[in-house]
């Protein structure tokens, strides 16, 4: 096990009706003026907006609001949010929504306290040294942003999607009521399941040995998510399934499943090029296409780990005569599962051709400045080969 630091300062309020405490919670922290930030209208359709607004008023909390966050959240709205916070002397940002809203809120909270343009943080040209506190009411189990140290923003002019990590990205508190996810449709539920699994699997497929505890936490989480995912797709109002997905989403990406080992989210790097280039690609749908291709490209370089995954997560019998066969079966089982919950597993299903492979690969290497490390280091040529396997 490698040395590690583990810091998850976000206070979690989990369970039924917890969102009804939002005003009381904010009041306890002493914030008097907040920005209420949300997406394209789902929170109004499910009645959450009215409840939150009423609760803020009942607790004497003044607020300004900014809706309209789009999936793959745009830097242009972040700029507007940051200016609004400055003008209105906002003390904290409350994000009500999924990962896109939370990420937008995080970068607004950082940009509100500086004159640096928000994109500079995403582009890696500037590092935050302070931020307004962010609280969240999560409405979609997927990104893990409600406890994570990252924020992912899209620059619509440059067709670039970039994430950056900072301890200033960790929310102060997150309210998680699984019932708020009953209205998430099958497709977004599927995207969430894939994203949750991938946050754990990306950390799992590492070269670090002797991380048995972390491996077993990861495998247990994956098995619970696979089962809960099947149930939630069939019955969107199954509380236990929705609760499992919601909590797993947070634990998958709050660094627990990476403790003690090298972890780098490789498939995520390739996926961000995909949804950065093609805005209609949802993050989870991009990942369900990239993972099987990446895994097939690299598995022969760590057959042992892929066998462990196949046997422990998918209950596949170990073929000691031909371990490669077992390893491949685990990858195919994952692909079949993604397909079974309605996720695409090939680019052709999204009508995406090879036209932009070269450009996406170039961007992914930061124009030749980096190689994606892993079982097989991925430079431009190798990234194109992985994209080819996605076709
Ligand atoms: O915009 P609204 O109207 O709210 O609708 C959203 C959106 O259309 C809808 N939705 C959310 N909650 C709902 C609901 N619909 C019905 N009922 C509800 N309760 O779902 C759609 C997708 O929302 P979005 O927030 O985009 O999805 P998700 O939570 O999957 O977030 C995806 C974003 O997070 C980033 C992704 O790259 C992507 O941009 N990620 C952020 C991470 C982080 N900060 O740690 C890590 C992840 O790896 C990921 O990269
Ligand atoms: Zn993700």
Order of neighbouring strands in the sheet with most strands: 1-8-5-4-2-3
The total beta strand count reads 8
> What series of H and E elements makes up the topology?
EHEHHEHEHHEEEEHHHHHHHHH
Helix content: 40-55%
Give the N-to-C terminal Cα separation. 37 Å
Q: What is the number of helices?
A: 15
Principal-axes geometry comes out as: globular
Bound small molecules, by name, code or SMILES, are:
5,6-dihydroxy-NADP, zinc ion
Low-confidence stretches: none
Total count of domains: 2
The CATH topology assignment of the largest domain is: Dehydroquinate synthase-like, alpha domain
CATH superfamily of the largest domain: Dehydroquinate synthase-like - alpha domain
CATH architecture of the largest domain: Up-down Bundle
What is the CATH class of the largest domain?
Mainly Alpha
Describe the structure using short key phrases:
391 residues; alpha/beta; Rossmann fold; Dehydroquinate synthase-like, alpha domain; 2 domains; two-stranded antiparallel sheet; 15 helices; binds 5,6-dihydroxy-NADP
Description:
This is NADH-dependent alcohol dehydrogenase. It comes from Clostridium thermosuccinogenes. Keywords: Oxidoreductase. The protein has 391 residues and is α/β, with parallel strands linked by helices. It has 2 domains: 11-180, Rossmann fold (3-Layer(aba) Sandwich); 184-389, Dehydroquinate synthase-like, alpha domain. 48% of the residues lie in helices and 11% in strands. It is built from 15 helices and 8 strands. It has helices at 22-29, 42-45, 48-58, 75-88, 99-111, 118-122, 186-204, 212-234, 239-253, 266-277, 283-298, 303-314, 323-340, 357-364, 380-390; strands at residues 11-14, 33-38, 62-66, 92-97, 134-138, 150-155, 160-165, 173-176. Strands 1-8-5-4-2-3 form a 6-stranded parallel sheet, with helices on both faces. Strands 6-7 form a two-stranded antiparallel sheet. Strand 6 (150-155) and strand 7 form a beta hairpin. Helix 7 packs antiparallel against helix 8, helix 8 packs across helix 12 and helix 11 (283-298) packs across helix 15. The mean pLDDT is 97. It binds 5,6-dihydroxy-NADP and zinc ion. Zinc ion binds at residues 143, 195, 198-199, 268, 283.
